[in-house]
From TrEMBL:
Residues 84-377 form the Aminotransferase class I/classII large domain. Keywords: Aminotransferase, Transferase. Coiled coil: none annotated. Gene3D superfamilies: Aspartate Aminotransferase, domain 1, Type I PLP-dependent aspartate aminotransferase-like (Major domain). It comes from the Bacteria. This is Aminotransferase class I/II-fold pyridoxal phosphate-dependent enzyme. InterPro entries: Aminotransferase_I/II_large, PyrdxlP-dep_Trfase, PyrdxlP-dep_Trfase_major, PyrdxlP-dep_Trfase_small. One of its GO terms (molecular function) is transaminase activity. CDD domains: AAT_like (cd00609). PANTHER family: AMINOTRANSFERASE FUNCTION, HYPOTHETICAL (EUROFUNG). It comes from Streptantibioticus rubrisoli.
Amino acid sequence: MSQHLSREVPPQTTSLLDLTQHEIEALRTRFNLADAHTHQRQSDRQQKIVSRLPELWYEAEEGLQATYEQRFTEAFFRLHRQPTALAANKTLLSYAASISTMVAGMFLKQQRMAVTLIEPCFDNLHDVLANMGVAAHPIDEEALHDPDRIYEELRRRVRTDALFLVDPNNPTGFTLLQYGRRGFEEVVRYCKDHNKLLVIDFCFASFTLFDPEVTRFDVYELLESSGVTYLAIEDTGKTWPVQDAKCAMITASDDIRETVYNIHTSVLLNVSPFTLNMLTQYLEDSAEDQLASVRDLLTRNRELVRKTLDGTILEYQEPVAKVSVAWARIDHPELTATELQRLLYAEGVYVLPGRYFYWSEPGKGESYIRIALAREPEMFADAMALTRRVLDRHAR
Ligand SMILES: *Cc1c(COP(=O)(O)O)cnc(C)c1O
């Protein structure tokens, strides 16, 4: 190992404080497999949308803001098959999921609530809450792994007034949808019985659409009919290759709706009508091709990860929901994620070390790395070839 280290001195990334700081560094790297944003080119169908951009721009200049908001929201919830959310017509739009999360955080702070947050998860969620002065306690994702025990595990483990889940989870791809309605029903039943605010980040939900294994049922029907107090966050940001022109959403149960609305209007007035008009085209296109433009590329890159890691010290973890990131476990007595990340970075391949996803106990993440899949297949194949070369130096 020392041989390779002395051959080339890799830049220092161990002092970076969070995943986003890694992702910023990775943006300068040839093979950036760090951030889960979409860096692939347009599909043939999506190119047709891009060629109509001037038309969409002028159209958005002419119409009413409310029209573009309505069209966008309808297209989104229609694609996601969420008729109850569509009919409730109370979803608030923002520029980014982190803004919606901040609104949730402001609400928690205002209500003096601490939160129990799923672990592992993208550290940005924890950091946003922490920076807003909201205390977060971890709950291991494993607490949700057996539908018969969810209620009991939550009853035993949750000590705060709010429970914050990410479904499907980033990075693991775990989703309660694998149990049909049952998993969410148990979570909601627990929150209702124990008077807990349920916050759910659904930013990765588009990766469950058109997948028979994890079909998204009408989750808002369950939330609304149960009477649970909830905040649900949705997003477009990780799905379509639109250069981070995105729109996120937050929906609140009726009992807290006005309070949340008042916080929301302290943060923003509206999302760009041009962005909404453009995103609506992507949503409608994906409804037509059953998300093929998005899913086919991810499937192809995921297959290559599986093949590349086969027989190496990196064990590919098959996710329940085929999200846009791959999660792999290091099977080696000494090699940590921090070290492996550094070795790959020295070759120009930037992956994320798992420690940051274990936001309460980083050491637990030293056995995992995350690989982003929403990339051009040619570049991705070169990155995987390099990755394999590095891994082969560390045969078991
Ligand atoms: C990326 C991500 C966010 C934050 O999205 P931004 O567009 O960066 O604000 C929130 N939740 C999940 C699950 C994410 O993957």
